[in-house]
Amino acid sequence: MAIEVRGVEKRFGDFTALDDVSLTVADGALTALLGPSGSGKSTLLRIIAGLETPDTGEVLIGGSDVTNSPARTRGVGFVFQHYAPFKHMTVYDNVGFGLSVRKRSKQEVSARVRELLALVRLDGLAERYPSQLSGGQLQRMALARALAVQPQVLLLDEPFGALDAQVRGELREWLRRLHDEIHVTTIFVTHDQEEAMDVAKQIVVMNAGRIEQAGVPSDLYESPANEFVMSFIGPVNRLGDAFLRPHDIQILPEDDSSGEEALVERVVHLGFEVRVELKLHDGREIWAQVTREGAQQLELREGQILSVRIPAPRVFAS
Amino acid sequence: MELGPRASGRPLLHRPAGGAAPGAASSARAARARRLGARTVALGYLALLLLGPVLMVFYRTFEHGLAPVWSAITAPSAQHAFWLSLEIAAIAVPLNTVFGIGMALLLERGRFRGRAALGLLIDLPFAISPVVVGLSLVLVYGQHGWFGSWLGEHGIQVIFSVPGMVLATAVVSLPFVVRETMPVLRELGTDSEQAAATLGAGAWQTFWRITLPGIRWAVVYGVVLTAARALGEFGAVSIVSGRIENQTQTLPLYVQDRFENFDSTGAYTAAVVLALLAFGTLLAMNLLTRRAHRKGPA
Question: Is residue B81 over pLDDT 70?
Fold first, then answer.
């Protein structure tokens, strides 16, 4: 179901967590709330779930106003950052909890739990306790538990934050495919721009309690609305008030001196990508991103003086 | 100076050449001696203060064989005191359990003014002398107290009867469940309770199915301590009970009564029963915590 947030404000004492936030998420969308810590993204998610109440503003789920409804009647599946497992229950009982508080029959609970455990690939672990699971398994158990009650909306708070890099990558891929299968309206919170771009079809960039920009990943990258979005999504060079993507800087071959003169200060090999730190003739420092092949062809080395072509940088009205 | 393979830029922690090995050995010996000394002092202190006197009570009880012990145990007033103690504990402990869980939830989860002050108030029974508790109860519920005359008109006698003794016992054993439960409640956090709410559980379901199982070992621990305190309470109960034999005499009061009347066998036997009750509760607690640890973080 579609989610609509209208003019929501939330203060904790003197701190303004959300400042007049409005947002629409289409039915069936997979959306990321992206921002640095303290930007209000988790607070917004918790307000949608009904775990916090906004000071002003409204929350609508599927067109109906749920601002004053408690969390348990909102039909929202919520996956907590640290999974919030019920430690005294088995995986089976964790996943079946939502159904058993609804007084569903044993057969129905059992069928649904088996189905979900298969979906999250925890089939063999039904009788384990949370303390016997790995981080990735806990994450999937938490997801199965949230999905068991067939929520209209699935909310995930930093779902991959506490996992190591490899498991994180797998789960990202898996969440995307899961969403393709079940099409429940999904919002997840992250501070990792790469993760947001990888998983989400729509990204909402937040900063200091406000929404800076919302849109599809490529739009945010190519036409950022302001310098915050530009520097938060993707790498950036800053030249005074102007911003420039490192991969837009073109390093010319040694015999071509038609560009600006630059000194190669450092060449960093990061696998496929090579990061070249340059000092321009007027003393400004920038860095360029080239491919491994590009770097090889240019025979880049530290201390070298060469020529670079810098496209017109982007300037944002302040 | 040639430093050999260790001169690889690491911080040099070794002692001056030659002195390192013997120095380490002697410092290890000194540490062992210190540990042994500390252990001796600790055990000696315990033996003099606790173990010796308690063993002495056991020795004096069974000094003349089992027959006098048996007759002391089966004496009607001893029996009465024993069952009265159990009766009072059986009422006061559940009261404090329910109150303690509720208060711990309020202090840990609630956000209201005066929470810190309330927390201090809960600890008061630990700090205040039980005699003062007893006296204050007499002042409020006694015949000339605030509620005493009203209660008397309605045929309820609190002081010098069981209700007052239950009250006194409840007051002195009040903080245990609260104080044992609060830190565990804090550690448990609110995430799992909120998760239960998003899954459709109401407040009552969340309490019974998520919160209470999460704090159950802390509650059990608190209950055991409450029970031990309730069974052994002397000062407060002594004042409010009036110490009427076969009526308001609990086991600790009975011990004192026998002692004052030079019935040493009676006093020692009742003391041994009290000590055994205490050992029983401690043993139960030990077994329960062991079970809790075996079952992992629950």
Answer: yes
Tell me the pLDDT tens digit for each residue of A96-117.
Answer: 999 999 999 999 999 999 999 9
The reply to whether A32 and A112 lie within a common domain is yes
A140/A91 same-domain check: yes
* A197 and A93 share one domain: yes
**What confidence tens digit (pLDDT) does each residue in B14-23 have?**
444 444 455 6
How far is residue A263's CA from residue B81's CA, in Å, rounded to a whole number?
Answer: 96
Which of A72, A142, A148 faces B201 most closely, judged by CB atoms? A72
Residue B198 to residue A146, Cβ atoms within 8 A? yes
* A311 in contact with B, Cβ within 8 Å: no
Question: Given an 8 Å threshold on Cβ–Cβ distance, is A51 in contact with B196?
Answer: no
Closest among B145, B221, B151 to B181, alpha carbons compared? B221
Which residues 145-164 of A are in CB contact (within 8 Å) with B?
A: 145-146, 148-149
- Token pair, residue A172, equals 């990202």
Number of domains in chain A: 2
Q: B18 exposed, middle or buried (CB, 10 Å; 0-12, 13-18, 19+)? A: exposed
pLDDT over threshold 70, residue A126: yes
Contact B192 A85 (CB under 8 A): yes
Q: Which residues of B touch A98 (CB under 8 A)?
A: 199-201
Residue of A nearest to B298 (CA): A88
- CA A210 to chain B, closest CA, distance in angstroms equals 26
Nearest to A86 by CA among A134, A22, A160, A141: A141
Residue A318 lies in a domain: no
Strand partners, A239: A242
Q: Does any CB of chain B come closer than 8 Å to the CB of residue A86?
A: yes
Query: Would residue A317 count as lying in a domain?
Result: no
For residues A246 and A110, state if they share a domain: no
Of the candidates A72, A89, A129, the beta carbon closest to that of B197 is on: A72
CA distance A72 to B164: 45
- Which residue, of A181, A212, A231, is where some domain finishes? A231
Pair (A107, A209) in one structural domain: yes
Our CA-based measurement puts residue B292 at a distance from the nearest CA of chain A, in whole angstroms, of 11
Indicate if A200 and A245 belong to the same structural domain. no
Instruction: Find the mean pLDDT for residues B31-58.
Output: 91
Element (H, E) at A114: helix A106-119
**B112: distance to nearest CA of chain A, Å?**
14
**Inside any domain, residue A26:** yes
CA A55 – CA A44 distance, rounded (Å): 12
The answer to whether B124 and B142 are in contact (CB under 8 A) is: no
Check whether residue A144 and residue A273 sit in a common domain.
no
The answer, yes or no, to whether ipTM is higher than 0.90 is no
Among A197, A231, A265, which residue terminates a domain?
A231
Residues of A in contact with B201 (CB under 8 A): 72, 97-98, 101
Range of the domain at A266: 239-310
- Segment (H or E) for B62: helix B52-62
- Reported as a single tens digit per residue, the pLDDT across A189-199 is 999 998 999 89
Contact across the interface for B192 and A131, Cβ inside 8 Å: no
